[in-house]
Automatic annotation (TrEMBL):
Domain of life of the source: Eukaryota
Classification via PANTHER family: TYPE IV INOSITOL POLYPHOSPHATE 5-PHOSPHATASE 9
Keyword match Hydrolase: yes
Pfam families, per the entry: Exo_endo_phos2
MF (Gene Ontology): inositol-polyphosphate 5-phosphatase activity; phosphatidylinositol-3,4,5-trisphosphate 5-phosphatase activity; phosphatidylinositol-4,5-bisphosphate 5-phosphatase activity
Family: Belongs to the inositol polyphosphate 5-phosphatase family.
Translocase recorded as keyword: no
Protein name: Type I inositol-1,4,5-trisphosphate 5-phosphatase CVP2
InterPro entries noted in UniProt: Endo/exonu/phosph_ase_sf, IP5P_plant, IPPc
Species annotation: Zea mays (Maize)
Length: 455
């Protein structure tokens, strides 16, 4: 009896914190651009209960499930996906901040089709921000800056601005052809300081189905959202995508990598999405069940070398020796974390830790108790992926000096399964829109019959 009482005393703070976290995080709500006919710029909140809220009215449930169709041939479409992670260090975006250099406008083959952007520490990780509800304003500011930069970049490209030979890319938005409408937010979700936002070209939005979100907190008491992961998923045509933005446990002491491994395991195991009821067929529920998965964020893995040697190797740009002692790669090799995941070759300087507004790495600072707190350079910010149909074509960093981290960017060539003409027709007859139209027709027939009886 006494033992059970002691166990309850230990567990109750975590249970209370878990309830508070679930209440404040709004785990089912997300932000998206709705393709409303009257005002395409409306930002509204959707929930998973209504199928994600971001689906168009004619959302096709039959497309939301991968099924073998041996007698029907699907076609494969190719898209370009831009993925980036940035720990902004709790710095509020200043007025006039232009994100165009970070987001890039695309290459000579045209703009990117999809942007996946993960932020960490969009608010300082103080107790008030972890437990309080007033932390969305800064996140919305980052979303609006992203919108402005993406559409400004595309507008300049479409007009052929700048020197040299330019390619003009026609506007493909069927809603009036305004250049500023070219990218729409599919889904955005914030948990404390972690923000994940996904954007697609406006002409692709009608092919996006069933967006939903999931949050896992791994911070204080093992459940609060100062550390953890935010995941979003949806279908593009007949292919399921899942994107995960993580902020794992910090610390440069020996053995701290075990905490990061535990965080990663928790995020991958505890993240769940609604199964849905599309034609009574189960939808992917876990991260690894999806066709294409990209995980990015401040994973916080360090370099297992003495600080002085690490700094010397950084000055020499000896990336080979440094990467041989990179904790993330070591943990993947020994099976401690992220087995089966891929990462592109790293050919850029460590992204952490810098003096803000400087190109100088952080040396040491005197902590409140007089101890020296060391911050050796490391590749804390990473982009990983898994699943067939993903090929990384670029992996680099951006030189923004806003925070003590540098953003990391990756570009992928993505293959997506799409139904052929026969499948499109078949999908329509099995869709919610067809059922709804049939009900309206039956209702009209009944009303007409009643009207005829009264004559």
């Amino acid at each position: 009896m006494l033992e059970n009482q002691k166990q309850a005393e230990v567990l109750w703070p975590r249970l209370v914190a878990n309830k508070l976290f679930r209440k404040t995080s709004g785990s089912h709500a997300f932000v998206a651009d709705f393709p409303a006919a009257d005002d395409d710029d409306d930002i509204v909140f959707g929930t998973e209960a209504d199928g994600g809220g971001g689906c168009s009215p004619d959302a096709d449930a039959s497309r939301c499930v991968k099924r073998a169709r041996p007698h029907e041939r699907n076609k494969t479409l190719k898209y370009k996906l831009f993925a980036s992670t940035w720990n902004v260090g709790g710095v509020a975006p200043p007025d006039g901040l232009d994100l165009s250099d970070w987001l890039d406008g695309g290459d000579d083959d045209g703009p990117y089709d999809m942007y996946v952007l993960g932020f960490q520490e969009v608010v300082p990780l103080r107790a008030r921000n972890v437990l309080g509800a007033d932390k969305k304003r800064v996140g919305m500011r980052w979303i609006e800056l992203t919108r402005a930069a993406l559409n400004r970049s595309h507008s300049q490209r479409s007009r052929g601005g700048g020197g040299g030979k330019q390619k003009v890319h026609p506007v493909r938005d069927g809603g009036g052809g305004e250049l500023g409408r070219e990218y729409r937010c599919v889904v955005s979700k914030q948990m404390v300081g972690i923000l994940l936002t996904v954007w697609v070209r406006s002409d692709l939005r009608r092919f996006v189905r069933r967006p939903s979100v999931s949050c896992v907190g791994c911070g204080v008491m093992g459940c609060l959202g100062n550390k953890g992961g935010v995941s979003v998923r949806f279908w593009l045509h007949d292919t399921s995508f899942c994107f995960v933005c993580c902020h794992l446990a910090s610390g440069g002491r020996e053995g701290d990598e075990a905490h990061r491994n535990a965080n990663a395991t928790e995020i991958l195991s505890r993240t769940t999405f609604p199964r849905g009821h599309a034609l009574n067929l189960p939808l992917p529920q876990n991260i690894l069940d999806h066709d294409r998965v990209i995980l990015l964020g401040d994973l916080n893995y360090r370099i297992s070398l003495p600080e002085a040697k690490t700094r010397l190797l950084v000055e020499r740009q000896d990336w080979k020796t440094l990467l041989e002692n990179d904790q993330l790669r070591a943990e993947v090799c020994r099976g401690g974390a992220f087995q089966g995941w891929s990462e592109g070759p790293i050919g850029f300087s460590p992204t952490y830790k810098y003096h803000p507004n400087s190109d100088a790495y952080y040396g040491c600072a005197t902590a409140a108790r007089g101890r020296n707190k060391r911050r050796a350079p490391a590749w804390c910010d990473r982009v990983l992926w898994r699943g067939a149909g993903l090929a990384q074509t670029r992996y680099d960093r951006c030189e923004s000096r806003l925070s003590d981290h540098r953003p990391v960017r990756a570009v992928f060539a993505v293959e997506v399964d799409a139904p052929g003409d026969l499948n499109s027709l078949r999908s329509f007859f099995m869709s919610e829109r067809f059922d709804r139209d049939q009900m309206l027709l039956r209702k009209d027939d009944v009303n007409s019959a009643r009207f005829g009886d009264t004559l």
